[in-house]
Amino acid sequence: MQWLLAALPLLFPPADPQVVRRLEAREIVVELHRDEDGFPEGTSTGLLGAPLQRAWEVLTDFDAYSQYYTGIHRSEVRRRSGNQVLVHMVIDFPWPMPDRWVLLDFRLDEAGRRFTWTRLDGTVKRYRGALRLAPWPGNRTVMEFDGLIDPGFPFLPNWLMAYFTAQSLPGIVSGPRDYLDRTARSGM
Which residues fall within 8 angstroms of residue 58, CB to CB, at 6 or more apart? Predict the structure, then answer.
């Protein structure tokens, strides 16, 4: 688990002026890279229009993930114990691929406003990642997601998995961002 926290960028929130301009323009900054086995993984960074505490509450409400992540059919907390949360998810993959399920072990660092997750079981072959939040001027929050998902379809080449990864990374930020925007407008 420590390798995952060490893999996160050293500068958080982003300090590069070009990245800051892109974030302020509501762009989601995406970077693709490869894991130690050459499998595609990526990082997605964007701004959420909500204060840090509200963003944390939404992103740690694991039962509600299907409300803002279109690729998740169902999400259910199976057990909570201190900073550990076991979550069962059913993930939608594009036709003709079947849905997959996964049991994830989330480890929360509430003081640092970050969490990591690893796969414990399921039809998904590998799923691991980390999410970090930090305050941003204007009562907003910057969110950084770093992760890898290998659905375990042996017929999918790495170049196609890289394409799917690149296409899905923006939604990791835009899903909760849009949800937070909708709930703020409706007064929730």
Answer: 50, 64, 68, 176, 179, 180
